[in-house]
Hints:
- By secondary structure, chain A is an alpha/beta fold.
- Chain A has one domain (about 5-280): P-loop containing nucleotide triphosphate hydrolases (Rossmann fold, 3-Layer(aba) Sandwich).
- Chain A is about 50% helix and about 10% strand.
- A five-stranded parallel beta sheet of chain A has the order 2-3-1-4-5, sandwiched between helices.
- In chain A, helix 2 (about 30-55) packs parallel to helix 11.
- Chain A starts with a helix and ends with a helix.
- Chains A and B meet through helix 3, strand 2, helix 8 and helix 12 of A and helix 3, strand 2, helix 8 and helix 12 of B.
Amino acid sequence: MDYYQHFRVSPGSKLNLDKFDATCKDLHDDRKAAEEETLKLRERIRELQYQLYAERKRSVLICLQGRDAAGKDGTIRHVFRAMNPQGCRVYSFKVPSKIEAEHDYLWRHHRVTPGLGHVAIFNRSHYEEVLVVRVHNLVPKDVWKKRFDEINQFEKMLANNGTHILKFYLHIDPEEQLERFKKRLDSPAKQWKISDADYSERIYWDDYTKAYEDALTKCSTDHAPWFTIPSNRKWFRNYVVAKIMVSALESLNMSYPETSVDLAEIRRLYHEEKQKEDDS
Amino acid sequence: MDYYQHFRVSPGSKLNLDKFDATCKDLHDDRKAAEEETLKLRERIRELQYQLYAERKRSVLICLQGRDAAGKDGTIRHVFRAMNPQGCRVYSFKVPSKIEAEHDYLWRHHRVTPGLGHVAIFNRSHYEEVLVVRVHNLVPKDVWKKRFDEINQFEKMLANNGTHILKFYLHIDPEEQLERFKKRLDSPAKQWKISDADYSERIYWDDYTKAYEDALTKCSTDHAPWFTIPSNRKWFRNYVVAKIMVSALESLNMSYPETSVDLAEIRRLYHEEKQKEDDS
């Protein structure tokens, strides 16, 4: 099954998240097989990232979005930790700092877009500017409405300049979210993650749904597609994200760069040095 | 064996790198056992990094130094990729950019020191300012001589403000370096890493030795120790670095932070929400 195509939000399509199946039991129900496959996919991601790094011709930007407890941190821990930290940086965007708030809303994201050969992962992203900002009326409607176009243009410019963009929306349903909050309550290693906002945001569930539907349909483009990931089951979420990552990275047709040095000359030097060593 | 103490450069001690055993066959010669142990140590590093991240009280700065082909990249790939990229960033310092060169030599390093809860890995570091800079006379002697004190003061200030510093010098001997250059020549996936400088720097071997001896002895302090790592055998290098990392992180006595929220109130909310769900 081509998960890349299946879960991609087609540009200009409609999307009804309330009807989107966050579990997809009929699509896959063999956890053990999926977990084994995910390990292999991670190895492949590693190889492909190494080529990206060696090639130094393109960069990759990954945006992770989702409600509280949807699994953004978990996806990084289980899928993206396949990557060598030498070529991969994660940026978590929280409430803007004073300096950040004194700039346009794309400024702080643009500063940390990936350089050639590198991967950047945005844990929450510039999309919060049409999500939390919209739901809580942090700016007037006529301001955030312009942002869909502005974001598309920003991403188009990045793509034109060698950045390959992939955006994942991790979809869970309200029952699953509640279960996960419960688990945090019961685990000493997870209690520190609980915030008062977890529950207070739940009354805005439908407002967020509407905001996500707009963001995903208005900003899924050929150069920067959105993927809706069924995330009720963590192992399936990891599997789907890993499969899409491999498809995307393989489509780049990367290769190791030609060396810029004169290999014959270097070989001659090697033998000269070796001779010296052997003589001494 | 306490590798942390064994390979630590004692403050104020003498060091003769030409006599330092880069292999240490007598210390450990069971590759399989060491590799298995290293996997376990990596898991432990992962757990400890997660606590550091959760705690958000301290940060960790790791400096990796070594000659070409000493294994800086390999150490990151094999040991430090245990870390979740969400809380760990690698910074590779190459020839300074124009803007960087217009500032003091510590500026570009200070900008990227780790924040609370985070780990930063410097792949080459501010120590190049008393290594390559000294060997190639890029600044006069009276300038670089002042840097040992300046670096110690800089690191002391970082330590006073919650940054735990560990510095690894990966030691190989000239024969091993030559062998590694040879392997790069023969591997299509490694040829791109070859630079003309690899061989041309070899004539400065003894100058670098002297420069490293000074840097390591003058700047190994209680708050920012240097470790000389025998690195001829990659598996042993990984094992020693992983062991030292675990010792260092365990000595921080970290714990998960107390939650700032009212857990009883959150539990009440959970049951209220659950009731609503069950009723509907």
